[in-house]
Amino acid sequence: MFCKNMNNLKNITKTTLSKEWARLDRIDYDYQFKNGEWKRLSRECYNRGNGAAILLYNVERQTVILTKQFRMPAYENNSREGMSIEACAGAIDNNDKPLETIIRETEEEVGYKISEAKLVLTAYTSPGALTEKMFLFVAEYDENMKISKGGGLESEDEDIEILEIPFSEALEMIKKEEIIDAKTIMLLQYVQINKLLIPEKAGI
Ligand SMILES: Nc1nc2c(ncn2[C@@H]2O[C@H](COP(=O)(O)OP(=O)(O)O[C@H]3O[C@H](CO)[C@@H](O)[C@H](O)[C@@H]3O)[C@@H](O)[C@H]2O)c(=O)[nH]1
Ligand SMILES: [Mg+2]
């Protein structure tokens, strides 16, 4: 069996090593190196589906909305880094579209009702280990869109603090390594590079 568009890949077999919350598969495959030699290789792939994230920004206030929550994998890596500051994000349920997911997560996690969002980046977050592809959005927010306190779903054991912080401070937090989540850094830098938040726009 050959993989789509790849004639240097064949005989792919999949063994599920673990299937609880998500699925860990070992995938074995024959791969032909540039020198022509074929080798049987093996890679573990963790599959928890795809994800969506959003950076909410307000031009008048020059602020962004972020979340703060405990992340066990980050704590496991470095116990001082367990509390993670991130853009609002959620896993995409099987049949959902990324936009539907992010509109729902925005209400659940930060309490803002948005009706539209702009897809600005699509990125594999860790393509050597995760199957996950992330869809990254931006949207403007204002206080009229705040319809609930947010904080995440108790039924899902979510415990999310909502932060509204000046954009300039968020950029400083990247420099100080207080924001170390990749999707969040990408979104903040997208807003910076594309000048979505600049003082002139706010009339400052
Ligand atoms: N029991 C159990 N529950 C889990 C596990 N992993 C996640 N959950 C539950 O599933 C919920 C997932 O919440 P979401 O808001 O949908 O996802 P997320 O954890 O914020 O993930 C988002 O960010 C991740 C980190 O950047 C992304 O990896 C992911 O794709 C998504 O965008 C969590 O609150 C938790 O209740 C697990 O291993 N075990
Ligand atoms: Mg989330």
From TrEMBL:
Keywords: Hydrolase, Magnesium, Metal-binding
CDD domains found in the cross-reference section: NUDIX_GDPMK
Chain ranges for the short sequence motif Nudix box as given in the UniProt record: 90-112
Reaction equations catalysed: GDP-alpha-D-mannose + H2O = alpha-D-mannose 1-phosphate + GMP + 2 H(+)
Cited PROSITE patterns: NUDIX
Cofactor(s) listed in the protein's UniProt record: Mg(2+)
Domain Nudix hydrolase: 47-187
UniProt GO BP: nucleoside phosphate metabolic process; ribose phosphate metabolic process
Binding site for Mg(2+): 89, 105, 109, 158
Pfam families (alphabetical): NUDIX
Gene Ontology MF, one: metal ion binding
GO cellular component: cytosol
Alphabetized Gene3D superfamilies for the sequence: Nucleoside Triphosphate Pyrophosphohydrolase
NCBIfam families: nudix-type nucleoside diphosphatase, YffH/AdpP family (TIGR00052)
Similarity comment: Belongs to the Nudix hydrolase family. NudK subfamily.
PANTHER family tied to this protein: NUDIX HYDROLASE DOMAIN-CONTAINING PROTEIN, UDP/ADP-SUGAR PYROPHOSPHATASE
Binding partners and assembly: Homodimer.
Protein's name according to its UniProt entry: GDP-mannose pyrophosphatase
Organism of origin: Winogradskyella thalassocola
